Amino acid sequence: MNQNTAEEGKTLAVVSYLTIIGSVIAIIMNNDKKNEFTAFHNRQGLGLCLMYMIIGYFISQFDNMQISVAFWVGMGLLFFYGIINAISGKMQAVPLVGPFFQKIFSSLGK
After folding, report:
1. Once rounded to an integer, what is the mean pLDDT over residues 45-73?
2. Which end of the chain has the lower number of beta carbons within 10 A, N or C?
3. Rg (the chain; Cα; Å)
4. Predicted TM-score of the model (pTM)
């Protein structure tokens, strides 16, 4: 990947981290261009959004603010890490779960 590819795909890469709707929009808009930088961040963003909704559903069953805050802080850090990498033009996976998202969503962007 060259620097020009990252510059072209930065906007959609950042959008892919902004809720599940942003991920879907970024995936649809990247279907024509097939930018590998955007596709990488689409996989990361979609995975984080789905993980947030699934784990958030189970966390909401607990009536404990400490558990909820720990979940929000943890997910917030993962989203922040992804957004910062997208803005800086890096294709660096999100810690812990990033390689898993790249594997299960490998068909996105190809």
Report:
1. 94
2. C
3. 14
4. 0.89
